Each structure stands twice: as C-alpha cells, then as structure tokens.
C-alpha cells in the first residue's frame, strides 16, 4: 500500500498544465523541457506508466478456463472465434497493449536527451523498459510474434497509417527484444529500494524474475515442441540469476503461507507487487475487488463468485506429502479435509471448516443441504469457497474497499521456475532442493527420508509433472494455472472430454433432525459430523458442454480489425487464411 506517488500523478500533471502529455506524438506541443528535465515530472511520467501497466488481481475467462474455478467459458466450450481474444488493439488507447506501449516509447525516446543525471535517467528508463517487456510478452504469449514498435508512432487510421503498418516480427525476435529490455532493467535498477515509500517499484530481482518466467515459457512445449536444450539452458541461467539477486537483497519465502498476503511493505516474498489501499472517498484511493468477489455474500458485500472445483480440492496432497491416490497416503474420501497438506486448509473453505473471517477466529462455515435446500443464504455452486488472500480481520462493512496488495510474482514462483528450468537441463537435484524448501514452508512432514513426500529418483518427465502439480497447489487461484496448462499443452490430456465437478453435501435426516444438528453442529467433532451425518455427492459443474479445448488456441487469432487496419499483418497458421508460423 505504498507507492503513493502513483495516485498523485494526476494532480501533478494537472498542476503543471501537462494533462495532455500522453495524448501527443509531437512532444514539442507542450513544454517538453518542463516534463523531461524536471525530476518530479519525469518521475510522475514513470508513475503513470506504473499505474497503467501494473497487473491486477486475476479475473475473467483465463481464470475460469482451468480446473480450479467453476464457470462457463468459450475456451472450454470450443467456440473461440477470430475476434474473441482482442487484446491486440487497433487504436491509441490507455486500455490496450499498443496504446500503453506508445506512452512507454515516448518516454524512452525522449528521456536520453534530458538534462537530468545519467544515473537517474537510466533508473527511470529501466523501470519503463520493464513495462515495455511486460506489454510485449502479454502479446507474445497470446499470439506469438508481433510487430515490434520501439518508437512512438501515430495511431492506425491517422496520417501516419502507412508508417504504422509494419509486419509481425518472428516470435524469436520478439522474445529477444523483450529480453533486451529486461537486461537493461536488471543492469540499472537497485536490488532493493531504500525508501519505504518506494515499496512496489520494480527491482533488479523482479526484472530478473520476470525474464526467468518468460524464458521458461519459451522453453516449454507450446513454444519449444522439439525440446531444444538451449532454451532450457537460457531459462535456467535467467532463473538462477533471479534467485541469486533476490536472495542477496533479502527476498525469500515468507515464514507463513497463510499470512504472506497480509504483509505489505518489505514482504520478503513479494517480488513484484501491485499496491492497493483501503481508503474511501480519497482522491488517491485504490481498492481491489478479489476479496469482495470471492468471500461468501453473507459474510460482507462479497458475491462468492470464485468457487473452487472438486478437482482442485483433490489435487492437494496429504500432510505426509503423498498425493491422495498414492499408496500409503492415508486419504479417506469420507473425510476429504483430514490430514491434508496445510495449504489446503488455507486455500479452500469447505463445509464445516473453521474460518477466521470478519475478525471471528472461530467462525464455522456450513454449506450442506437439507432435503435439497441449502442452509446458506446463497449456495455455493461447487460446494467450496476460495479462502486464499481473504483478509481475516476485514470488517464486514469494509469488504468492498479491501486494500490487500496483489503479488504478481512471489519468491515461491521464482523457486518453482528455477526448479523447472533445472529439470529441463537434467539438474534434478536442484529441482528437488526447491521443492523441499517450498513443502517445508507449507508444513508438510519431511518423512524418514527427508523428501517431504516426493518420490526419490524421479525421471526428468516425472519431475516435470511433479513440478506442475506443485505449481497447481502452491499458486492456486493466482492466475498461473491457465498459462501452465497452455504452455505445457495439457488441456487435451487433462481436461478435454471431461466436465469439471463440485460436491453437494447432504445432511442425513434419517440420522439426525435438521433442528438438532443445527443446534449442536458447531460443538461437534467434524470427523463425527462427516462420518455420521453427512453424505458427499459429486455433481457436474459444466452442464452445457464437455470441455473441448482446440489445438489452435495455443496461439490465438489476430483480430480481424487489426488485419483490416494493417495489410502487412499475417494471421496465425490454424486460423482462416493463416500463414504466420508462431513457432518461428
């Protein structure tokens, strides 16, 4: 909740008469010297870039198109069209990728000639270069290679239309440009900002971590179907650099998986963070919506819309580290919640769970049905709620103004990225080391062999699958699962032809009266409740279709409006009239 300068930028620009700065290609149209030669205004421009580009709490189709959360999506219905994924953008707008890149380019072109000190200029440019890399990777992971615009051009449709009509660069060229920008950021940013008011600014470690994430994607089967070893080596080197830089500057795993979302400035796990606050009626208020959209509606003003599937509930291992289907796991399907990996309890809320919420440390969540009618005021469709990152002490009336910061990249993700890259080059011992540290923090028992439930001596292929499952658990509901399934091209093998499921938990009225149970339930042993009075009935959540992810979705179509506006663009192979190979 630091980085207050982001929210002050509008006032700064208005006061200086520069509110139109970002709408101009010709920077001589305003007092350029005032903006680029003034420390405060130059920094204000950078802060505008932050405000326009920082990622937000996950939502929408990409969150629903997984085995984590229920909800209809065209990706699973198999009805994605050419114009469905329209993030390409065909006009200058602060809301699309190329509009944001244009504002970024204006700064990067003009700042080198500023009279400010070289060190300060590079520090500002390094922050802005990071976001150019972020915007371009947002495009590349959707479509493959894209036109690389590195100078501010006029909007398509204006006089500069011919200049702006440039062809797509290859995917490899696009990745190289992204890496170039991030290398500049790594070289010119501090490992840690000294002023606490700068919490939330990009560090060299964040830039290195993002570079590691990108090169891991580029090494994965979606981009690397031939398993080229040099891709995995590049990913390994980048993630090793990120780990080293972050550790050297005090970053690492938070001591508590449960509490890491509620530690703000100087949170050791928050590698890349978007800051929010819980102010109301203030010109610099910036509230997030995750808490309000996720908690049960009757526990605040929330809607309970992010509801976990039975599949994700079953994905968590046991406290001994074994998957529930493994021999010796100790899993009891009647007591699905018992002796699970502690991350289960801190990620998913289920019928009978004790949930510290609204300041009540002993609140009991009940979602069961009596004679086909829920005891909830509004039933959860899946039988579960997401518990992760829901502020336990937020008062009921303050839910809509939650200020919990979004952590786009946690140190745990950097560790998992490094482990996967290490596996890619057959350094399985290093992968084991990262997994053990993460599982130790989670609270999984080490076991007699010290492997925390992991199978010793895994093959490369087995380790890859173990890592993907660990990511599914550790990073659940953080917006990473869609991209993991996509980069590993696993939608067909894990989800196609299936329907996601939830559960209905029925009270056995033949064993106890509803009134008697309601009066006694909070004081009962939960094991006794489930053994004697509850029946768990699976139910389908996808009622309109079986999942039908299509191969062409691994690289989405360039929207037709973009093709119309730029005759030099090629459509991706696999889509109508497609000639562009996104693997090139």
UniProtKB/TrEMBL annotation:
Gene3D superfamilies: 1.25.40.390. Belongs to the SusD family. This is RagB/SusD family nutrient uptake outer membrane protein. It comes from the Bacteria. The keyword Signal applies. The keyword Membrane applies. It is found in: Cell outer membrane. SUPFAM superfamilies: TPR-like (SSF48452). The lineage of its organism: Bacteria, Pseudomonadati, Bacteroidota, Cytophagia, Cytophagales. PROSITE patterns: PROKAR_LIPOPROTEIN. One of its GO terms (cellular component) is cell outer membrane. Residues 268-575 form the RagB/SusD domain.
């Amino acid at each position: 909740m630091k980085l207050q300068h982001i929210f002050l930028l509008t006032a700064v620009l208005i006061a200086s008469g520069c509110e139109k700065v970002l709408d101009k290609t010709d920077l001589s149209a305003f007092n350029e010297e005032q903006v680029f030669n003034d420390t405060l205004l130059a920094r204000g421009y950078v802060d505008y870039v932050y405000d326009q580009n920082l990622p937000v709490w996950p939502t929408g189709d990409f969150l629903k198109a997984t085995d984590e959360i229920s909800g209809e999506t065209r990706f699973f219905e198999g009805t994605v069209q050419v114009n469905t994924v329209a993030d390409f953008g065909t006009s200058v707008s602060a809301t699309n990728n190329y509009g944001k890149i244009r504002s970024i380019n204006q700064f990067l072109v003009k700042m080198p000639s500023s009279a400010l000190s070289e060190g300060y200029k590079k520090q500002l440019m390094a922050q802005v270069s990071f976001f150019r890399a972020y915007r371009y990777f947002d495009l590349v992971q959707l479509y493959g290679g894209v036109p690389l615009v590195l100078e501010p051009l006029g909007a398509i449709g204006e006089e500069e239309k011919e200049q702006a009509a440039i062809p797509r660069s290859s995917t490899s060229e696009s990745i190289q440009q992204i890496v170039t920008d991030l290398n500049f950021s790594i070289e010119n940013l501090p490992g840690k900002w000294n002023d606490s008011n700068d919490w939330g600014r990009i560090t060299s470690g964040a830039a290195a971590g993002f570079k590691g994430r990108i090169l891991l994607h580029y090494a994965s089967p979606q981009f690397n179907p031939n398993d080229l070893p040099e891709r995995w080596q590049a990913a390994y080197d980048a993630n090793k650099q990120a780990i080293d830089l972050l550790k050297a500057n005090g970053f690492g795993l938070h001591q508590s998986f449960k509490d890491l979302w509620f530690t703000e400035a100087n949170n050791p796990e928050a590698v890349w963070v978007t800051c929010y606050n819980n102010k109301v009626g203030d010109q610099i208020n910036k509230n997030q919506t995750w808490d309000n959209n996720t908690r049960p509606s009757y526990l605040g003003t929330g809607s309970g819309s992010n509801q976990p599937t039975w599949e994700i509930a079953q994905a968590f291992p046991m406290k001994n580290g074994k998957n529930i289907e493994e021999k010796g796991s100790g899993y009891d399907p009647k007591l699905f919640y018992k002796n699970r990996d502690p991350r289960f309890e801190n990620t998913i809320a289920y019928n009978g769970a004790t949930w510290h919420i609204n300041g009540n440390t002993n609140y009991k969540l009940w979602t069961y049905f009596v004679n086909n009618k829920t005891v909830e005021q509004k039933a959860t469709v899946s039988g579960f709620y997401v518990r992760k990152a829901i502020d336990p002490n937020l008062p009921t009336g303050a839910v809509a103004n939650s200020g919990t910061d979004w952590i786009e990249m946690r140190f745990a993700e950097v560790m998992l990225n490094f482990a996967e890259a290490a596996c890619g080059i057959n350094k399985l011992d290093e992968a084991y080391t990262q997994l053990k540290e993460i599982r130790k923090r989670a609270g999984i028992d080490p076991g007699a062999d010290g492997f925390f439930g992991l199978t010793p001596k895994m093959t490369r292929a087995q380790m890859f699958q173990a890592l993907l499952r660990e990511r599914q658990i550790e990073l659940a509901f953080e917006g990473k699962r869609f991209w993991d399934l996509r980069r590993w091209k696993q939608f067909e093998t894990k989800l196609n032809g299936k329907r996601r499921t939830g559960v209905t938990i029925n009270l056995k009225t033949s064993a106890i009266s509803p009134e008697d149970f309601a009066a006694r339930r909070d004081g009962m042993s939960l094991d006794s409740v489930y053994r004697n009075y509850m029946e768990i009935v699976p139910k389908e959540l996808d009622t309109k279709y079986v999942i039908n992810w299509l191969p062409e979705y691994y690289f989405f179509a360039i929207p037709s409006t973009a093709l119309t506006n730029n005759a030099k663009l090629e459509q991706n192979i696999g889509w109508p009239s497609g000639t562009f190979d996104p693997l090139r």
